[in-house]
């Protein structure tokens, strides 16, 4: 996914177009109950090396530069990315048909490092009653595409029932072609900041479909 930033910044005629600044390898663990209903989602974010370095330096952690945090440093780092503004969806969208599944804010945040990269986890609860996980669509994306999420870490299900996970990766070439075609329709003086900047994040998102038998 990181090559996409180079394409968007160097190869398109409109530098104001949103492009990734942060890259996150993402993993999901769906927690279901005995009735095959979704109750929680555990989210894992592994930040790119450069962003990790910036955060660690800003927080004055890993002063010896070995990429390994002490227990006290991990405690200080935990929750640094869990201070969400009101209305932020955590860049995670779960749909049941045409309806959005409401999720809580981040719970039980934890953080560590792996190979000098910050890796964090947080838990999100389904608000209200658990929802049937018979046909759920899940995507992790920032619609502005400031952050690029790649579903490269494990996607699993925990619970007493056996569920099916299907993955559909985006057609990168087709989406880039559509973006190029759109940009070619614009005048060179077109101001993307003052007009509608294309929200392309979802177009480059992997879709996970979860199906659990109802009991």
Tell me what you see in this structure:
This protein has one domain. It starts with a helix and ends with a strand. The N terminus is likely disordered. The chain is built from four helices and twelve strands, in the order αββααβββββββββαβ. The protein has about 220 residues and is α+β, with helices and mostly antiparallel strands. The protein is flat. The strands form two sheets. Strands 1, 2, 5, 6, 7, 9 and 10 form a seven-stranded mixed beta sheet that branches. Strands 4-3-8-12-11 form a five-stranded antiparallel beta sheet, with no helix packed on it. InterPro entries: DUF1007. Keywords: Signal. This is ABC-type uncharacterized transport system, substrate-binding protein.
List the helices and strands and how they pair.
Elements: H1 2-11, E1 22-32, E2 37-47, H2 49-58, H3 71-77, E3 92-96, E4 99-100, E5 107-114, E6 117-125, E7 131-132, E8 136-140, E9 147-150, E10 155-158, E11 164-168, H4 172-184, E12 207-211
Parallel strand pairs: 1-9, 1-10
Antiparallel strand pairs: 1-2, 2-6, 2-7, 3-4, 3-8, 5-6, 8-12, 11-12
Organism: Ruegeria halocynthiae
Signal peptide: 1-18
Protein name: ABC-type uncharacterized transport system, substrate-binding protein
Question: How many angstroms separate the termini?
Answer: 39 Å
> What percentage of residues falls in helices of 4 or more residues?
10-25%
Instruction: State the shape.
Output: flat
Total number of helical segments? 4
Give the ordered list of helices and strands. Answer: HEEHHEEEEEEEEEHE
Q: What integer is the average pLDDT?
A: 87
Structural class: alpha+beta
Strand content range:
25-35%
Radius of gyration: 19 Å
The major pleated sheet works out as: 7 strands, mixed
Which residues sit in consecutive blocks of at least 5 with pLDDT less than 50? 1-17
């Amino acid at each position: 996914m990181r090559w996409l930033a180079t394409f968007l910044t160097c190869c398109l005629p409109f530098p104001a177009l949103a492009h990734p600044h942060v890259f996150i390898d993402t993993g999901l663990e769906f927690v279901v109950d005995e009735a095959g209903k979704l109750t929680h989602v555990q989210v894992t974010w592994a930040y790119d090396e450069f962003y990790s370095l910036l955060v660690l330096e800003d927080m004055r952690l890993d002063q010896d530069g070995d990429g390994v945090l002490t227990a006290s440093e991990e405690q200080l780092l935990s929750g640094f990315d869990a201070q969400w503004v009101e209305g932020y969806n955590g860049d995670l969208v779960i749909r049941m048909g045409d309806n959005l599944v409401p999720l809580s804010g981040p719970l039980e945040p934890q953080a560590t490092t792996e190979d000098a990269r910050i890796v964090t986890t947080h838990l999100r609860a389904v608000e209200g009653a658990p929802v049937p996980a018979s046909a759920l669509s899940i995507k992790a994306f920032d619609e502005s595409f400031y952050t690029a999420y790649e579903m490269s870490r494990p996607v699993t299900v925990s619970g007493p029932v056996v569920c099916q996970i299907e993955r559909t990766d985006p057609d990168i070439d087709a989406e880039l072609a559509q973006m190029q075609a759109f940009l070619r329709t614009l005048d060179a003086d077109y101001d993307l900041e003052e007009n509608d900047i294309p929200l392309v994040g979802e177009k480059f998102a992997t879709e996970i479909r979860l199906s659990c038998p109802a009991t």
